[in-house]
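This part of the workshop introduces the protein records we will be handling. The structure tokens are whole numbers drawn from a learned vocabulary of backbone shapes. The record below serves as our worked example for the rest of this section.

===
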Amino acid sequence: MIILLLAWALSSITEELRTAQYLSSVLSERLAPGLVPALVFVLAAATAFATGTSWGTMGILLPLVVPLAWHVLAASGLHTETEYHHIIYSTVSAVLAGAVWGDHCSPISDTTILSSMASGCDHIEHVRTQLPYALFVGIVAVLLGTLPTGFGWPWWLSMGLPAAVLLLGLRLLGKKVPGAPEPVAE
């Protein structure tokens, strides 16, 4: 509860300091519109991992990055063309996805703590075993999904290719749990 209150306070402070306007003025002409969602995902993931809260991350970042995405589009002259508005939608989505990703991987997150307690697993062991899979999914999602879509790939290709890579990665890198029953084919 305290973390959420502090996050809301930080959000209010950044609004009062006009941080969104400052970031937009500094970055809008330096960033390619297609990079914004991927960078925002990484920023949201790092923030949520460090703080252990997805809601706090969303509260802090959404008021900052939505105006940034709009100003990056405006600096490129694309803000009036509706075919580029997916950058704004993708930026909002990147905040939500990155916040949840970081929250679920963070060792100080209530989600992680409760998951390890509920499964009877050592807390640090739980974090250590889930982090490689989460990193793999996050990297594949950014490199084969978010970035290509930001630069104009069709959405269906940016969903199909990462899904295939994830399935292949699970087959090649995944390990069977000792003593787990084999799946039954119906």
